[in-house]
Amino acid sequence: MSENTIHQAAAPVEEFERERVPDRATRGLKSFLGMFAGEHVAGTELLIGPLFVVHGVTAFDLLVGLLVGNLLAVLTWTYVTAPIAVKHRFTLYFQLEKIGGRSLVKIYNLANGVLWCCVAAAMIYVSATAIAVPLHCQMPALNDWLPPGPGLAVTVFLTGLLFTYVAARGYEALAHFANIAAPWMVVLFAVFGFSALPELGIHSLADFWSVANQSIWPGHAAAGRVQFTFWHVMFFSWFGNMAWHWGMGDLSIFRYAKKYTYGFASAAGMFFGHYMAWICAGLLYAVQVSRNGADTAISPGALASDVAGWAGIVLVLVAGWTTANPILYRAGLAFQSLHSKWPRFHVTIAAGVIASLVAIFPGLCSKFLEIAALYGLALCPMGAIIFVDHYFMRKSKMLDFYAERVGLTAWWPPIAAWLLALVACVAMNFGLHIQIFFLGLPGWIMAGIFYYIMSKYAQSRFIIESFRL
Amino acid sequence: MKPFLMTLSFLALAASLVSSILCANKGLSAETNQAVLFVGMLVWFAVTPFWMRNKKT
After folding, report:
1. Which among A14, A179, A310 is the nearest to B55, CB-wise?
2. Looking at residue A74, which CATH number applies to its domain?
3. ipTM of predicted complex
4. Residue A375 within a domain
């Protein structure tokens, strides 16, 4: 997932932000394949793989659950996101503005900025664990919420400040470095997997299944952790990038596609990235536990260093940095959009300092699966609103792009539908005890239904009142 | 020049991959594998910037 959030940073969002992408600017399939393959190998993969082990998945649940979930994610990109993107060729933001006015975009940006700070914090922490290896910092235990000592806290905070400063200066140079590093990172994740095998006692394919069930994914959740099943794995891998497919964040990318079938390019990210990277990261964690059963801490730097030496340490640093950087930059832009007179440099510094402070607490990273699910859940209702506006408004004799057509800066149905869907999800979580991993789709569907019903009521009422005036 | 540099870059990646596969088959020690990975990394980052163009973002 994860990672998942760097999509927009790598997308060519500076162009055609407030107009339809012309046909001459569309791109071929190859550029989408490269973009997805590179962007879904991020620092947080090194948290997600071990967290699946901690949550007690079995080998079958993981391998098959990831296969099905990632396949569903690819199909969602292809048949939900890409068709709307190719039809209108607008960014998510411009489309939201047309539907709900600038106020809706501001609220969306505020939510996005806050969530980006949390995701950036996880990236900062991941990179800092790489720096902590040669510094011999004491690492936190699995369920620690506080850092074990000042060494790690200072390392994390200074790492965050460095990332923040670079992001505030603009991410062009580091974006180029990220492009260069991407193929190497994909290969090194595969290297992690191969290098971990002999330590786990796997020397042939025949060894793999028995060791996988006994030692790597034995199916016992750690104390205080939800026991994961096939369904958890499937829904997490499907919804890990929910904000981008169901939530329509990738309208900004696929508006450049010649055909909606380019959505299948997301398979490069889901299978070379998520599927392979999460499994390989799980193998690294299994190596650590096999060496010392009491050492259950998730420290990506140490995990990678154990099997790949300095190359592993550099990978963790680079994977975290190249993804934290655009996220911090985008968080700065999101907050700046609330008040155009705020200088982007200062806003990005403020967002980065907040992210760096959050990153100090390792408990946040050990709960990254929940944070990733929350990220998707909070933003996905916007995708439902765009979906309903695109497919159902005209068929139901209502106006699509209502705020733009009527000239409103704030149109309440999409805002109310979003908030109401989130309130309903919170109620389902606390009242019905439905875990956050399963709330994404109900939240999306409810937001769509609420938006439709409210629009039906509000559009007719608004038109009547306007007529009387 | 560019084809030569590209070849060098991809050889570095291939060496990293082959080294880890050999390590998995006990054909190479973990220490040697880590050394190959380190050298592969240096070659990749030293050579690739000279042929990979800066994509506009």
Report:
1. A179
2. 1.10.4160.10
3. 0.94
4. no
